[in-house]
Design brief:
Length: 202
């Protein structure tokens, strides 16, 4: 075999081994059953929408908490519950934040909590699937399905504690939750993105 072909073949073998090892390292099979709590320093719930077609603002909630009850023997039987303080909404524009927490939008005085409770988990691959649950905003509960990707599972580099990280995305119509002010000039469809790390609790 010519040197160039030998080098290419060796490189391909190294890459395939590296990818296989990465997939093995980040799999759920590395985790123990138990309660995994959201690392609040690495938990992000953001959303965006069309502002009259001119831009797509990105907002976030600063106060988010969540717990996964992980079942290693039957992963799809695992459950997730999330609590969000709507008063912690952050648009980076203080005047807008004040409007968002008012009765025109989240009405935090009367509805101080947003919750999500999973009802089913469907794995399409060992590292991706869909998570469905009940989302409650302003006292209105609707089903929400998220596309979820497992980024990595394994020991925390600093503490050695078992943990995993996920990315989740989904869409909802804000009018379903009595948040329809200014629609359709301001888009009713909201794109959600969640980045979260969960750590095993002792």
């Amino acid at each position: 075999m010519k040197p160039f072909l030998m080098l290419a073949a060796s490189s391909a073998m190294l890459l395939s081994t590296s990818f296989a090892q990465e997939a093995e390292d980040r799999g759920l099979s590395t985790l123990s059953s138990g309660t995994y709590a959201l690392d609040k320093t690495h938990g992000y719930v953001t959303f965006s929408y069309s502002h009259q077609g001119y831009s797509y603002p990105i907002l976030r909630f600063d106060d988010v908490d969540g717990v996964v009850n992980f079942n290693a023997g039957n992963v799809t039987a695992s459950t997730l519950s999330v609590d969000i303080d709507p008063a912690s909404i952050n648009s980076a524009v203080p005047d807008f934040d004040e409007h968002l927490v008012s009765s025109d939008f989240f009405d935090v005085e009367n509805h101080p909590e947003i919750t999500f409770s999973s009802t089913s988990l469907n794995l399409e691959t060992p590292y991706s699937g869909t998570l469905t649950g009940d989302l409650t905003v302003k006292g209105v509960t609707k089903p929400l399905t998220l596309d979820v990707t497992l980024n990595k599972a394994g020991p925390n580099a600093m503490k050695g504690t078992e943990m995993f990280g996920v990315t989740a995305t989904g869409q909802l119509d804000r009018r379903d939750f009595d948040l329809g002010l200014y629609a359709p000039a301001v888009g009713a469809e909201v794109d959600l993105r969640i980045e979260a790390e969960f750590m095993l609790q002792e």
